[in-house]
Amino acid sequence: MEHDICRERLEAIRNHPLYQSSLRRLNDLERGRIFCRHGMEHLLDTARIAYIKSLERALPLSRDLIYAAALLHDIGKWEQYENGTPHELSSARIAEEILSGLPPHLRFSPEETETILTAIRGHRKLRETPELLEALLYESDKASRACFSCPASEACNWDTTKKNKEIDL
C-alpha cells in the first residue's frame, strides 16, 4: 500500500502540468548544451543515488520524500537561463506550486513540504548546518555527475572540488 501511494505521488508530480511545461522548457534550452544537462535522466540519477545512500546509512527519510526533492530540485533551471534567477530559488517556488497542487490524498504534510523545499533551496551550496534531506540531495546531485568521463570536462566552469574525478561508491 505504501509503495502504491509513493508511486502515485511521484507520478502526480511528474504529470503535473507545471512540471511538464517546466521540464519541456528546460530540455529545449539545454538541447545543444555540451555540459551536464538537467533533464529526467539527471533527476532520476540524483533520486536513485540519494535513496541508495539513505538506505546504506539507515536515514529516517521516506522514499517518496527523497524522490520528490530530487525530481523537483532543478525544475526551475530554465529561469536561470532566461532571466538569471538562481535555479535553486525558482525550483523551490515551482516545486511549492506543484506540491500544493497535488490531489489532497497525495499531498505531503506541511512539515514534509518544507523539508523538500529546504532541500531544493540548499542543493547548490551547503549550509553550515543543513537538514538531513538537504545534505543528502546536495551530495547526491554532485555524485550524479560522471565528470571523469565527460568530453566537456576541461571546458566546464564547475568548481574542481565538486567534480567527480573517479567512481564514487
UniProtKB/TrEMBL annotation:
SUPFAM superfamilies: HD-domain/PDEase-like (SSF109604). SMART domains: HDc (SM00471). Residues 39-146 form the HD domain. It comes from the Bacteria. PROSITE patterns: HD. InterPro entries: HD/PDEase_dom, HD_domain, HDIG_dom. This is HD domain-containing protein.
